Amino acid sequence: MKITVDFEECLKDSPRFRATIEEVEGDVCELESKLDKLVKLCIGMIDAGKAYNAANKQFVNGIRELAQQSTKDEVIESSLTKFAESLQEMINYHTILFDQAQRSIKTQLQTFVKDDLRKFKEAKKQFDKVSEEKEAALIKNAQAPRNKQHEVEEATNILTATRKCFRHIVLDYVLQINVLQSKRRSEILKSMLSFMYAHLTFFHQGYDLFSELQPLMKQLGGQLDQLVVDAAKEKRDMEQKHSTIQQKDFSNDDTKLEYNVDADNGIAMEGYLFKRASNAFKTWNRRWFSIQNNQLVYQKKFKDNPTVVVEDLRLCTVKHCEDIERRFCFEVVSPTKSCMMQADSEKLRQAWIKAVQNSIATAFRDKGDDGEKLDRKSSTSTGSLDSGGEPKERSLKGESALQKVLAIPGNACCCDCGQPDPRWASINLGITLCIQCSGIHRSLGVHFSKVRSLTLDTWEPELLKLMCELGNGVINQIYEARREELGARKPQPGDPRHEVEAYIKAKYVDRRFIRRPSDEELRNKVVSLSKQEKRLSSSSEHLPPRPPPPTPKLRPASNASGQSVKSADSGIQNSADGSREMLVTTPSNNSLTDADAAESPPMPMPATLPPPSPCKEMVFYEPKEYSPGLQLYWASCARSLPDMAEALAHGAEVNWVNTDEEKRTPLIMAVQGGSLVTCEFLLQNAANVNQQDAQGRGPLHHATMLGHTGQVCLFLKRGANQNAADIDEKTPLTIAVEAANADIVTLLRLAKMNEEMREAEGPYSQSGDETYQDIFQDFTHMASNDPDKLNRYQQYDSQRP
């Protein structure tokens, strides 16, 4: 209620005025109390709002964390993320509302109470004081005696002055009362109106926000019904599966373990085994073993990094262990260590042994470089290096091979679907592939495509050069020559697997898009290749002179009686203690082993030896008919990998025999051409490394006769039979000794020695002789990266009279 005091009434200082003043003072006192209470409640509301916002923020963060945990469920993740964003906006709106309440209620009303009410109180104090003084003056004036004139005058003067002061003070006091009564209305209403407008803005913003969110909420509401139905169906399925498994007989559960080389996660087999520790106590610990990526590894906990037991399964063997107290034990043996393990039953032991054996075989197929299906158990004469592994520093692995292969034009995308950044390759086709196309290629079989990883597998130098000389561009020009003409659509990244698989089979198996050459085109191609071969041959006739190789030094070994004991064929000496000593040379010197020379007299200089049997000069005869096999034949000699790939695509038999040229094969012609990469390409495409010509000579014979040390090393690694004799009863070793080619003699004797050692040690032995491994790797590395160092014999022989 607004109470106004009349100015005229205040001058009279009537009881009515005094009653009004008393009423005003009580009202102002109550107003101050109410305003103080309202400000305190506002402060409490703001503090509670801030606490609510803090708790709400934690709740929203919990929603976000739940959304992040549900990344595999796109519906839940997207919906929760959207809800969290909306609730965060509401928190921001609440913060704005509380800030406005603080400004409009707390700040404005506190200012009104502190300023205006303080002035009123000060004016009241002065009014009360002057009222008391006026009352005292009136009493003193009334008590002044009539006969005392000076007291009367003094009392009259004091009363006059007091009344004058009272009038000023009371007028100011009334003015302050009236101003306060007028201002209280505006201040209170202004403050509350500002607060209410803040609420109006808050609810408008919330309404707009949730209006935008409403379609999503309705959509989710519609989906919830289907989700409830699906959840009930899944529950029934799970209960049925649970019941089925519960009734299942688990007595033979261990028979369910199978070796799966094409597992999606790369793990061929996994399960628990007990492992015997290598410490002095020989304790047994249960670990989770798995066969993956051509390795045998185990883990103690799932989050632990796998511990590698066998780095390369090609280097190991597996066998039963019946000579220890524990049952169901087996041992995996590598060249450097062995690991004893125990299964839970005999069936599990057999399953693990079979899995390791299958993994070894798979590793040879996938990582071996021989295109043939060699039977390693029966072909004990093959001095193959594959069984001995390969030092990491001698081959490229990971990013090095990847960078070199992807640098070839066209290789940066998958050859079949165009997926960028491929990580796989087909080594017999010379192309790069994405992971999906690589799986399809692997399913075609190794007779169509051999798949290898560009990042996980090791890459031999000759194989890497093969990849760099072909590439996606070259192969697609052959295998997709008529694709556009036939209107066939090439797959794109992201196409369904069955469509990509159908295209790849049509491209490589059915060869539907290849352009078949006419007879005239084939004839021109063959003639051109034969002329190209002659140009290559003539360009290699004149070599720079080199000094002749030094006379081999003899290093006889003595037995107990002081006499030299050695094997004339194997290059192995028996020492006094009965052990065998291997006498070899490395490519850095050019001396023969002790077994290559006669003890007395010393071996003469190579110039006095008869020259090796020369290979027949390549002469092009007009054939009876032109065929893709003939194209492959001359392309191999001309070192043209694209023409060789084209011939194979047109149906050329990789082991085609030229009856007009002493039954020579393309692989023999590749030897004549002198290219290591050409031989590697034919071997990758299943060329027979032991196929002989009419003279009974295989590729190893021809490489030895021509002094091609790198090719000899390659053929020995691929299982060439060095004991095969030609029609003159000469083996490759005989030819190499007659030609005094120390490097080739070293390789042949090393391979023979390694073969004999493996036969003596039994079927489970592994070729782990370090000297044998190192020398073969030196020759392999040199043949690919520095072939001039292996031309010592040819350069010297060209200078002989």
From TrEMBL:
Pfam families: Ank_2 (PF12796), ArfGap (PF01412), BAR_3 (PF16746), PH (PF00169). GAP activity stimulated by phosphatidylinositol 4,5-bisphosphate (PIP2) and phosphatidic acid. Residues 266-361 form the PH domain. GO terms for molecular function: GTPase activator activity; zinc ion binding. It is a peripheral membrane protein. One of its GO terms (cellular component) is endosome membrane. ANK repeats lie at residues 662-694, 695-727. Residues 367-378 have a biased composition (Basic and acidic residues). The keyword Cytoplasm does not apply. Residues 559-577, 792-801 have a biased composition (Polar residues). Residues 367-396, 523-610, 782-801 are annotated as: Disordered. Residues 399-521 form the Arf-GAP domain. It comes from the Eukaryota. Residues 601-610 have a biased composition (Pro residues). It is found in: Cell membrane; Endosome membrane. The keyword Flavoprotein does not apply. Keywords: ANK repeat, Cell membrane, Coiled coil, Endosome, GTPase activation, Membrane, Metal-binding, Repeat, Zinc, Zinc-finger. Residues 379-388 have a biased composition (Low complexity). GTPase-activating protein for the ADP ribosylation factor family. PANTHER family: ARF-GAP WITH COILED-COIL, ANK REPEAT AND PH DOMAIN-CONTAINING PROTEIN 2, CENTAURIN/ARF. The BAR domain mediates homodimerization, it can neither bind membrane nor impart curvature, but instead requires the neighboring PH domain to achieve these functions. This is Arf-GAP with coiled-coil, ANK repeat and PH domain-containing protein. The gene is LOC103364559.
